[in-house]
């Protein structure tokens, strides 16, 4: 039988059914291919030996030759631990096992030379090494030893069952023996020579058994590139297929609604970025393909007007449009804003949310189906099956990160053929991440704020300075401004947070007494109608202070509010802080953001606060956020394949990602079907990938 990478791992010599089972369950290794792709976490120097008197308290990996001179069982709180005294000519140390003691005792001999390897701890005036990698010195001498020995990912269960790193290395060696070190090339020669990538076989060998540091880094580069290249290839291909297969409604005319609005009712001059983005959207809408576009724009960059004007194009072509927002507050705000604009053009517009009553629901359902209603604004309620359109031409989702991919696709099904889709987000996703997470969408960017905006002054104040902060607030209110005071609300400690909020409210009420001051409060436990009422009072300027949890985070627009006080700011993530700050700075006045914290701050909190006071560039903030938290926590990434990256790192390998995307694009633009001879290796690899794992399952 010829060597086949899809062979189940059970067939590899030295693995067997039990180990195969463990490898499957613990590391997800089913086939030879999976094993090859088990990339080492790090490399250690196994040509160096330490004497016991050379050990240092730095918790590094060390290798020592010596003998076990005695075993001892020591009772502890739960169970017991096995301690061996290990000796060389310079001193003694201890080896400690908390598990697998019976097996250890039976298999290790006293007064025989062993080589131990592992991390040391300093405890009770002695060095000890828990669960050392241990082998007979005589056997050790016959092994391949390298200055860069791979350390593989492992789990507690694997090490308990005796699958140590040494065993993993042996299994890997066996695989190279059986394959004779030959692996099918997955990248075309032309690309490899252009980018000076080493061959697949060389890369795979050197990632597991590096011959030199240079070859190791070449192997890493090649394999990272390959991984990112195929992800990008898939995303770009998906986008291409989408465009060729899914017909959109071509909105050929830009008609009366759009033109009248543009000429007569535009409340301000559009920024260049808004104009550019509108052009991109118009181009999409006018083509035969269905639009699937992500509109990224920092808070306050003016996405709403772009959304409205896009809807006008749909209306001009006889279609309906809808706009879905993640919260009721936001839907109401959009509705109120767009109602004014729509009235000028005699456009019928209505709002549907969870709290719409039965009769208005019924009316909306009817008007949607007979086509009388042109624009529908709403929340998730729009997605309900009962909501049917006569001819939905454009669906817009605001603050996309609050919705899942599933909801996006639900909108698709609102029509016999899918409407054009525009998703908008103010969560500044770093470009690299956006490319990977939303790689199947086209991306437009509003990278410019409307003219005349003053930069928000952001400061950090400790809790102890609250009185000064209150004085400042009083001065601002005296000037006619309004103020937000925001408290964290985190699910796990909801009760305590709620108490904090109420205590805070009480103390603000004391310092800002009625009737001189009026205070609104909004939090998640309130009925929607009460929330609206409080919100509305603030919007109308009847209250000067808005005490709230993060429900006001998204999209709320009160231009007269110029101060944002964030309590316990150290507990917020950067993205949230940035969103909250975006609630102010919307009018002509100088605005302020005050980050209140306790005195004790973790390093990460310090970095977050420092970043906020230093910059207001959403993308810069997002990059810091990504560095601090990794991509796993950035919203939207959960659904993408980005977390299952095997060797590349979306943050650190940013540059490789750019190259990979560029080359994937180049290749596909010249040869979209990958039928050229030189792209045969790509086509084959791509086919293999789609055959053996569902490559689509991580993209929407
Ligand atoms: P976001 O992108 O955060 O959704 P909005 O669409 O809510 O931003 O716009 C924020 C504010 O800026 C609104 O009050 C809006 O009317 C105003 N605005 C939008 N575009 C412009 C512009 N070109 N010139 C002046 N003000 C604008
Ligand atoms: Mg908005």
TrEMBL record:
Xref: Pfam families: DEAD (PF00270), Helicase_C (PF00271), RecG_dom3_C (PF19833), RecG_wedge (PF17191)
Domain of life: Bacteria
Enzyme class: isomerase
Record flagged with keyword Magnesium: no
Sequence ranges assigned to domain Helicase ATP-binding in this UniProt record: 284-446
DNA damage listed as a keyword: yes
GO BP annotation list: DNA recombination; DNA repair
EC assignment: 5.6.2.4
SMART domains assigned: DEXDc (SM00487), HELICc (SM00490)
Gene Ontology MF annotations: 3'-5' DNA helicase activity; ATP binding; ATP hydrolysis activity; DNA binding
Keywords: ATP-binding, DNA damage, DNA recombination, DNA repair, DNA-binding, Helicase, Hydrolase, Isomerase, Nucleotide-binding
Record-linked InterPro entries: ATP-dep_DNA_helicase_RecG (IPR004609), DEAD/DEAH_box_helicase_dom (IPR011545), Helicase_ATP-bd (IPR014001), Helicase_C-like (IPR001650), NA-bd_OB-fold (IPR012340), P-loop_NTPase (IPR027417), RecG/Mfd (IPR047112), RecG_dom3_C (IPR045562)
Stretches assigned to the Helicase C-terminal domain: 465-632
Reactions this protein catalyses: ATP + H2O = ADP + phosphate + H(+); Couples ATP hydrolysis with the unwinding of duplex DNA by translocating in the 3'-5' direction
CDD domains named in the record: DEXHc_RecG, RecG_wedge_OBF
NCBIfam families, alphabetized: PRK10917.1-3 (NF008165), PRK10917.2-2 (NF008168), recG (TIGR00643)
Similarity section: Belongs to the helicase family. RecG subfamily.
Annotated function: Plays a critical role in recombination and DNA repair. Helps process Holliday junction intermediates to mature products by catalyzing branch migration. Has replication fork regression activity, unwinds stalled or blocked replication forks to make a HJ that can be resolved. Has a DNA unwinding activity characteristic of a DNA helicase with 3'-5' polarity.
Protein name as annotated: ATP-dependent DNA helicase RecG
């Amino acid at each position: 039988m010829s060597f086949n990478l899809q062979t189940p791992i059970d067939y590899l010599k030295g693995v067997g059914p039990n180990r195969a089972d463990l490898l499957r369950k613990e590391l997800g290794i089913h086939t030879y291919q999976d094993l090859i792709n088990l990339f080492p976490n790090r490399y250690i120097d196994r040509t160096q030996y330490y004497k016991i008197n050379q050990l240092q308290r730095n918790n590094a990996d060390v290798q020592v030759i010596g003998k076990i001179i005695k075993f001892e069982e020591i009772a502890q709180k739960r169970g017991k631990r096995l301690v061996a005294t290990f000796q060389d000519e310079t001193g003694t140390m201890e080896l400690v096992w908390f598990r697998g003691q019976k097996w250890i005792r039976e298999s290790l001999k006293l007064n025989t030379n062993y080589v131990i390897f592992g991390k040391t701890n300093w405890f009770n005036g002695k060095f000890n090494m828990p669960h050392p990698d241990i082998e007979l010195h005589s056997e050790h001498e016959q092994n391949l030893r390298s200055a860069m020995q791979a350390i593989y990912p492992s789990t507690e269960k694997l090490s308990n069952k005796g699958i140590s790193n040494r065993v993993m290395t042996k299994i890997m060696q066996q695989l190279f023996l059986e394959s004779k070190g030959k692996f099918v090339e997955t990248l075309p020669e032309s690309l490899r020579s252009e980018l000076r990538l080493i061959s697949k076989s060389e890369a795979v060998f050197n990632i597991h058994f590096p011959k030199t540091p240079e070859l190791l880094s070449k192997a890493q580069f090649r394999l990272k590139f390959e991984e990112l290249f195929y992800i990008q290839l898939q995303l770009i291909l998906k986008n291409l297929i989408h465009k060729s297969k899914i017909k959109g409604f071509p909105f050929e005319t830009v008609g009366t609604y759009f033109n009248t609005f543009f000429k007569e009712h535009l409340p301000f001059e559009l920024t260049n970025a808004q104009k550019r983005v509108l052009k991109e959207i118009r181009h999409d809408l006018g083509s035969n393909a269905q639009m699937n576009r992500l509109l990224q724009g920092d808070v306050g960059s003016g996405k709403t007007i772009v959304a409205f004007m896009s809807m006008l194009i749909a209306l001009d072509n006889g279609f309906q449009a809808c706009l879905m927002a993640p919260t009721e507050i936001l839907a109401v705000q959009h509705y109120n804003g767009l109602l004014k604009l729509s009235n000028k053009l005699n456009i019928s517009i209505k709002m549907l949310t969870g709290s719409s009553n039965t009769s208005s629901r019924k009316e909306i359902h009817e008007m949607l189906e007979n086509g009388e209603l042109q624009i529908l604004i709403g929340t998730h309620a729009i997605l309900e099956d009962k909501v049917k359109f006569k001819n939905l031409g454009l669906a817009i989702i605001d603050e996309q990160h609050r919705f899942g991919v599933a909801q996006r696709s639900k909108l698709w099904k609102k029509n016999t053929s899918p409407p054009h889709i525009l998703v908008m987000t103010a969560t500044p996703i770093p470009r690299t991440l956006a490319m990977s997470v939303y790689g199947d969408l086209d991306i437009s960017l509003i990278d410019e704020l409307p003219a005349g905006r003053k930069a928000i002054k952001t400061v950090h104040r400790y809790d102890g300075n609250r009185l000064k902060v209150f004085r400042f607030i009083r001065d601002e209110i005296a000037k006619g401004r309004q103020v937000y005071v925001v408290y964290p609300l985190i699910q796990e400690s909801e009760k305590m947070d709620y108490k904090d909020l109420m205590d805070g409210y009480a103390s603000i009420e004391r310092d800002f007494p009625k009737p001189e001051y009026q205070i609104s409060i909004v939090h998640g436990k309130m009925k929607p109608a009460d929330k609206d009422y409080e919100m509305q009072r603030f919007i109308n300027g009847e209250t000067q202070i808005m005490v709230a949890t993060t429900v006001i985070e998204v999209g709320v627009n009160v231009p007269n509010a110029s101060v944002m006080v964030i309590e316990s700011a150290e507990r917020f993530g950067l993205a949230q802080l940035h969103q909250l700050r975006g609630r102010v700075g919307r009018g002509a006045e100088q605005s302020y953001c005050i980050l209140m914290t306790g005195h004790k701050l973790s390093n990460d909190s310090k970095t977050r606060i420092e970043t906020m006071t230093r910059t207001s560039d959403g993308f810069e903030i997002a990059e810091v956020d990504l560095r601090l938290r990794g991509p796993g926590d950035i919203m939207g990434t959960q659904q993408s394949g980005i977390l299952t990256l095997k060797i590349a790192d979306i943050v650190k390998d940013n540059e490789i990602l750019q190259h990979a995307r560029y080359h994937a694009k180049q290749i596909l633009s010249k040869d979209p079907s990958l039928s050229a001879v030189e792209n045969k290796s790509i086509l084959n690899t791509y086919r293999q990938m789609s055959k053996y794992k569902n490559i689509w399952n991580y993209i929407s």
